[in-house]
Amino acid sequence: MRTVLYILTTFSVIGLAFWAYRENYATQQALSDADDLRYEIREAYSRLAVLKAEWAYQNRPDRLRDLAELNFDRLNLLPLHPDQFGSIDQVSYPPLPELPLFEITDGVDVSSMEAPE
To answer: Which of 48, 81, 90, 116 could form a disulfide with 86 if both were Cys (CB 3.0 to 4.6 A apart)?
Structure first.
């Protein structure tokens, strides 16, 4: 009986050691993957900052004005003036649709109800 108990205990210890070994390496792999993702996120933020700076540089008003003047024959772009804008009163909104009204008292005897005070 003792021999069987010793054998079972030995196999249990070996099994637990194998499980702990696999869990250790799985955890190290997950930590490595997380570090790789953090690095990729930092790189993406860096690229995004460069793209934002480039976008701001390309959309400078003086540059756009010069481009509009150079390509006036093709684009026919004119500068905007305040008198070109309308007021809110000039906007024609579509009429609101009429909603069907239902009788609230359908199936209710109104005569038995008390008036609010």
So the answer is: 90
Q: Which of 53, 79, 50 is nearest to 64 (CA)?
A: 79
Stated as kind and residue range, the H or E segment containing 15 is helix 2-58
User: What is the spatial distance between Cα 37 and Cα 43, in angstroms, rounded to a whole number?
Assistant: 10
The pLDDT confidence band at residue 28, using thresholds 50, 70 and 90, is very high
What would the two tokens of residue 63 be? Answer: 């540059």
SS3 91: coil
CA–CA separation, 36 and 48 (whole Å): 18
Residue 68 and residue 75 in contact, taking contact as beta carbons nearer than 8 Å? yes
Indicate if the alpha-carbon torsion angle 45, 46, 51, 56 is positive or negative.
positive
Q: pTM for the whole thing?
A: 0.49
Q: Distance (Å, rounded) from C-alpha 27 to C-alpha 99? A: 62
